[in-house]
Specification:
single chain, alpha/beta
Length: 302
C-alpha cells in the first residue's frame, strides 16, 4: 500500500474514534494567528508522510513519519462517557526534531489516554529543525503556546486547568522536559490573551526521552533544562539497551531527586527505542499500565 493511501486510511480510522462532542473544525486548531508564527520554518515542500515503501515497521505495523510541518496546530481527542476524569495531556511525538511519528507516538497515544478517561491533545510542532541546529527553539514555542491554549479553553473543553500534563517520546520527550522546566519565561514575545495564561504542565511523562544531558559536561541535566523544586512531577520509562542511552533518564532522575521533585522511573532490561505503546513480548511495552497507576496514585485521575 502506498504511503499516501495509508496516511488517508489512518486519518479515516482516526476520525471514527473522535466522537461527536465537537465539530470537525473545532478538533483541530492552528496555534498561531496567520502571519504571526514566531521563529523559523525550515520545512521545504508540502507536509506529507515521508515513510518510504518497505520502511521500518513497529510491532508489525507501519509508522506515519510526518515531515515538512510548517503550520503548527493541536488536535483535540476529548475523553467522553463515564470514564472522563477532567485531566488532559499534551502529546508530543518524537522523530529527532526532523519528522513526527504521528500515529505511533501521537494518535494512538491519544486514543489510549481516552481509554483511561483523559483528554488527549496532539501537538503537531514544526519540523524539520534548521540544518546543523541542536535542540530547536520552535518546538518549545509551539509547546508553550499549546499548553496556554489548552488551559485557556479548559472550561469549554471539560478540562480541569490544574490537571494538564505533557507526554513525549524521544525528541518529543526532550520537548516535554523542556516544557516542564522552561515555563517562567516565554520563548517568544507574547501575542495575545492566550499567552497571558500559565504554560507550565502540571505533570510530565517522558518515554525513552532524548537529549536530557550534555555529553560534554558533568551536570546531571542538560543546560537548557533548569531543574528546580517547582519542576513538574515526572514519570519516565526507558530500556537499558536503548541506543539513545539510559543515561538520559538516570541523570535526569537524579537531577529531579536532588531538588525533591516527585519522580517515578522504570528502566527495562530490553526493548530498544521507538516502540510507542504498541504491545510486544518486551516488558518495556507495559509502560502504559505503570503510567496509569502513577497517574492514579498521584491524583491526576480523579
Amino acid at each position: 500500500m502506498c504511503t499516501a493511501l495509508r496516511f488517508i486510511l489512518a486519518l479515516c480510522c482516526l476520525a471514527s474514534t473522535w466522537g461527536n462532542c465537537l465539530s470537525a473544525q473545532d478538533r483541530t486548531i492552528e496555534l498561531w494567528p496567520a502571519e504571526q508564527i514566531p521563529g523559523r520554518i525550515a520545512a521545504v515542500g508540502a507536509e506529507a508522510d515521508t515513510t518510504s515503501v518497505g520502511g521500518k515497521e513497529v510491532a508489525g505495523r507501519p509508522v506515519i513519519r510526518l515531515g515538512n510541518v510548517a503550520t503548527p496546530m493541536v488536535t483535540l481527542f476529548p475523553a467522553t462517557g463515564d470514564k472522563q476524569t477532567g485531566a488532559a495531556v499534551l502529546v508530543c511525538p518524537g522523530g529527532g526534531y526532523n519528522i513526527l511519528a504521528y500515529d505511533l507516538e501521537g494518535t494512538e497515544v491519544c486514543q489510549w489516554l481516552n481509554s483511561i478517561g483523559v483528554t488527549g491533545v496532539l501537538l503537531k510542532y514544526r519540523v524539520p529543525r534548521a540544518a546543523k541546529e541542536g535542540r530547536p527553539l520552535e518546538p518549545l514555542q509551539d509547546g508553550q503556546r499549546a499548553l496556554s491554549l489548552i488551559r485557556s479553553n479548559a472550561a469549554q473543553w471539560g478540562i480541569d486547568p490544574a490537571r494538564i500534563g505533557v507526554l513525549g517520546f524521544s525528541a518529543g520527550g526532550n520537548l516535554a522536559a523542556r516544557l516542564s522546566t522552561n515555563y517562567a519565561q516565554r520563548s517568544y514575545d507574547p501575542l495575545d490573551k492566550i499567552d497571558a495564561v500559565n504554560c507550565k504542565p502540571d505533570f510530565s511523562i517522558l518515554i525513552y526521552p532524548a537529549y536530557l544531558f550534555d555529553k560534554d559536561n558533568e551536570a546531571l541535566a542538560a543546560s537548557d533544562l533548569p531543574v528546580t523544586p517547582e519542576t513538574s512531577p515526572t514519570f519516565m520509562a526507558m530500556s537499558f539497551d536503548d541506543p539513545i542511552g539510559p543515561e538520559n533518564v538516570l541523570r535526569y532522575a537524579l537531577a529531579l531527586k536532588k531538588v525533591n521533585v516527585p519522580t517515578e522511573l522504570h528502566l527495562y532490561p530490553t526493548g530498544g527505542h521507538g516502540y510507542g505503546l504498541r504491545r510486544t513480548y518486551q516488558m518495556a511495552s507495559t509502560w502504559p499500565e505503570r503510567c496509569q497507576e502513577w497517574m492514579q496514585a498521584s491524583g491526576w485521575l480523579k
